[in-house]
């Protein structure tokens, strides 16, 4: 329901501000430096650009390389469609080093501060790296969310060419990091590269609106890389609540981040915490540690107190990690609180506080997400326990407060 509302809302926004003309630009045939023709059809509806003929390379999808040699001013990178066609050898690209490819989301560009922070933290670590940024800002522009969603497939295909050109140098340590719509976009990079799989994709609060009901070929999932790890910080709202990787971390309950109420830009704050936590994970000494939970639904039902084994989240994750994990952070930077030792009562109370908050503030979303059978099962289990005879067995499904009291 909420997601339909979101899409309708953004559509409305879009349509309201449109002139009544649709223009198809004349630059359908662009000659590239290789001399090959690259026809591209773009429909512009007001400020919304919708790519129809999805051919790459595309001047609206550009690549930049940061390296120890160029840590502040990235080098532009030219990527061609054909094998061997690029100017990577003229850049500081070093095939012997690990490669990161960072992809921004909707209404943003590659210079989004929380993404630049990731780059900064990588370079604070002593090792050198190839850090590519994909810039598709003109195809991701607000207020046209549906157009940006549509364009992710095309941008994914163009980014796949970057991966192909990199691999031609024998570089195999390739890690895609996508934030928000960029997280879902990595799915289309993966689809284009099949049967090859990149070793790792990290989804940073992959976008929710527009992706909840679509099939796995159209959104990030664990089939998209040898290892897919996902951080959820604004589930139900800007991010997806769905488990999307081999391992999914729900930070502070996954919806509302501590400290975000204090900031003016509340809407972006929760969502942007995913890249902020990830950036911190690169250099943190304490580390973000998560404890296992069978599913996010189980968390909502209060079935996931802190327990062992704890696993580390973020850059240094062990690629054998699997399943849903819950993480608690501080409300200000540095956010990592390290591993819990002994009785984790404080962590448990924080986790419960977040859970109650979610149930209170987003009960409609929660109810449309969780399975009613699951609710019934939880209630039956509860009724079998000793103190259960105080209440009726059949709750009003509309009333999450009541259900919460019950479980
Ligand atoms: C590689 O090509 C890009 C795009 O044409 C250009 O901006 C950049 O300067 C080139 N890099 C080098 C090192 O020649
Ligand atoms: C990753 O986890 C596996 C299984 O728990 C373990 O055997 C392995 O040593 C770990 N790898 C690293 C690098 O910690
Ligand atoms: C939900 O349950 C609470 C506690 O039983 C009750 O006070 C409240 O009126 C109920 N709300 C609705 C919408 O039924």
TrEMBL record:
Primary site of residence: secreted
An example GO BP is: lipid catabolic process
Example of a GO MF term: serine hydrolase activity
Which domain of life, per UniProt?
Answer: Eukaryota
Pfam families named among the record's database cross-references:
Lipase (PF00151)
The record's listing under CDD domains reads:
Pancreat_lipase_like (cd00707)
- InterPro entries for this protein: AB_hydrolase_fold, Lipase, Lipase_N, TAG_lipase
Sorted alphabetically, the keyword list is: Secreted, Signal
What start and end residues bound the annotated signal peptide? 1-17
Which residues are in the Lipase domain? 56-316
Gene Ontology annotations for the cellular component aspect, listed alphabetically: extracellular space
Record-linked PANTHER family: LIPASE, PHOSPHOLIPASE A1 MEMBER A-LIKE PROTEIN
Q: Name the protein family.
A: Belongs to the AB hydrolase superfamily. Lipase family.
State what protein this is by name.
Lipase domain-containing protein
Phylogenetic placement of the source organism: Eukaryota, Metazoa, Ecdysozoa, Arthropoda, Hexapoda
């Amino acid at each position: 329901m909420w997601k339909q509302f979101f899409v309708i809302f953004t559509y409305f926004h879009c349509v309201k501000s449109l002139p009544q003309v649709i223009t198809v630009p004349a630059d359908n045939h662009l000659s590239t430096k290789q001399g090959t023709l690259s026809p591209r059809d773009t429909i512009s509806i007001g400020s919304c650009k919708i790519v129809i003929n999805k051919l790459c390379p595309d001047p609206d999808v550009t690549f930049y390389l940061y390296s120890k040699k160029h840590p502040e001013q990235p080098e532009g990178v030219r990527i061609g469609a054909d094998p061997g066609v690029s100017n990577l050898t003229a850049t500081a690209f070093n095939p012997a080093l690990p490669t990161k490819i960072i992809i921004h989301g909707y209404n943003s560009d590659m210079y989004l501060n929380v993404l630049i922070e990731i780059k900064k933290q990588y370079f604070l670590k002593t090792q050198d790296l190839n850090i590519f940024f994909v810039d598709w800002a003109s195809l991701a522009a607000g207020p046209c969310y549906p157009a940006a969603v549509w364009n992710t497939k095309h941008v994914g295909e163009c980014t796949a060419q970057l991966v192909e050109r990199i691999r031609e140098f024998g570089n195999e340590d390739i890690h895609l990091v996508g934030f928000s719509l960029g997280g879902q976009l990595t799915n289309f990079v993966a689809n284009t590269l099949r049967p090859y799989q990149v070793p790792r994709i990290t989804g940073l609060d992959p976008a929710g609106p527009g992706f909840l009901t679509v099939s796995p070929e159209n959104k990030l999932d664990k089939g998209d890389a040898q290892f897919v790890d996902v951080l959820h910080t604004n589930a139900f709202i800007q991010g997806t609540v769905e488990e999307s990787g081999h391992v999914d971390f729900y930070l502070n309950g996954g919806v509302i981040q501590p400290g975000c109420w204090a900031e003016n830009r509340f809407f972006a704050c929760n969502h942007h915490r995913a890249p902020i936590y990830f950036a911190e994970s690169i250099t943190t000494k304490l580390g973000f540690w998560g404890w296992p939970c069978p599913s996010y639904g189980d968390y909502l039902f209060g079935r996931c107190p802190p327990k062992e084994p704890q696993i580390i989240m973020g850059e240094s994750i062990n690629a054998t990690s699997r399943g849903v994990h819950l993480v608690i952070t501080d409300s200000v930077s540095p956010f990592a609180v390290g591993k819990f030792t002994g009785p984790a009562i404080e962590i448990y109370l924080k986790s419960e506080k977040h859970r109650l908050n979610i149930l209170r503030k987003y009960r409609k979303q929660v109810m449309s997400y969780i399975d009613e059978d699951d609710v019934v099962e939880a209630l039956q289990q509860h009724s079998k326990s000793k103190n259960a005879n105080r209440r009726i067995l059949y709750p009003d499904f509309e009333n999450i407060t009541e259900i919460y009291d019950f479980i």
